[in-house]
Amino acid sequence: MKAFQDCYPMKYAHCYGCGRENAMGLQLKSYWNGVDTQAHFTPGMQYSGGVPGHVYGGMIASLLDCHGTASAAAFACRERGKDMTQEANPARFVTVSLSVNFKRPTPQGVELCMRAQLLGVEGRKVRMSLCLLAGDQVCATADMLAIELLPEAP
Ligand SMILES: CCCCCCCCCCCC(=O)SCCNC(=O)CCNC(=O)[C@H](O)C(C)(C)COP(=O)(O)OP(=O)(O)OC[C@H]1O[C@@H](n2cnc3c(N)ncnc32)[C@H](O)[C@@H]1OP(=O)(O)O
């Protein structure tokens, strides 16, 4: 299965969190999971928060952010009757609003799962509900609004 991020046009494939062209980045990969989407990632031990053994909150937000923008593109394509992974030049979305609710400490050394659920598509705007799990524990949830870049965007 092809990851959404592997379909990004080259000029938008340099994101620290999910760009396939960023060798120093996290290179997050997102996929369909039924009608929703998901991604998996295990942060390195250097991404600790204030207490050893727990993941830094900025990393949690980054994982939700990058899974969200990729999911926005996939959801919007689907709403338009297309499959993002079959598109030569799919739309690229960016985050304009991300509200993270940290529910409980996120353990280190565990594979994390990020999921996105579509709330609605309105023109260039995609609203989603996201969550981050460690095993079956929901550690964080988020509401996100992503906007489709115009073709003339830099
Ligand atoms: C980034 C460069 C490439 C970068 C490409 C790299 C992609 C990497 C993505 C990785 C994930 C990220 O971290 S993204 C990085 C963090 N995000 C950013 O840097 C985004 C910064 N913002 C922008 O560049 C701009 O605001 C855009 C491109 C998103 C939108 O500008 P625009 O194209 O001129 O569109 P604009 O008319 O302003 O807005 C379109 C519609 O969205 C609504 N809208 C706009 N902002 C908001 C908002 N904060 N909250 C609610 N609604 C909003 C407007 O009311 C309007 O609704 P209506 O009137 O139509 O109803």
Task: Describe the overall structure.
The chain is α+β, with helices and mostly antiparallel strands and 154 residues long. The chain has a single domain (4-148), classed as Thiol Ester Dehydrase, Chain A (Roll), CATH 3.10.129.10. Helix content is 15%, strand content 34%. It has one helix and six strands. It has one helix at residues 57-79, and strands at residues 30-33, 36-41, 93-102, 112-122, 125-134, 137-148. The protein has a six-stranded antiparallel β-sheet with strand order 1-2-4-5-6-3, covered by helices on one side. Strand 5 and strand 6 form a beta hairpin. The longest helix is centred in the middle third of the chain and has 23 residues, at 57-79. It is globular. The model has no long low-confidence stretch (mean pLDDT 96). Bound molecules: dodecyl-COA (DCC).
- Strand percentage lies at 25-35%
Rg: 15 Å
Shape: globular
CATH architecture: Roll
Secondary structural class: alpha+beta
Number of strands: 6
Instruction: Estimate nothing, just give the exact number of structural domains.
Output: 1
Q: Give the number of helices.
A: 1
Helix content: 10-25%
Distance between the termini: 29 Å
Mean pLDDT, nearest integer? Answer: 96
Bound small molecules, deduplicated: dodecyl-COA
Query: How many strands, what sense, and barrel or not for the largest sheet?
Result: 6 strands, antiparallel
Spans where pLDDT lies below 50 across 5 or more residues: none
Give the strand line-up of the largest sheet. Answer: 1-2-4-5-6-3
Q: At the first level of CATH, what is the class?
A: Alpha Beta
What is the N-to-C order of secondary-structure elements (H for helix, E for strand)?
EEHEEEE
CATH topology title: Thiol Ester Dehydrase, Chain A
CATH homologous superfamily designation: Hotdog Thioesterase
Family: Belongs to the THEM4/THEM5 thioesterase family.
Pfam family, one: 4HBT
Keywords: Apoptosis, Cell membrane, Cell projection, Cytoplasm, Fatty acid metabolism, Hydrolase, Lipid metabolism, Membrane, Transit peptide
Protein name: Acyl-coenzyme A thioesterase THEM4
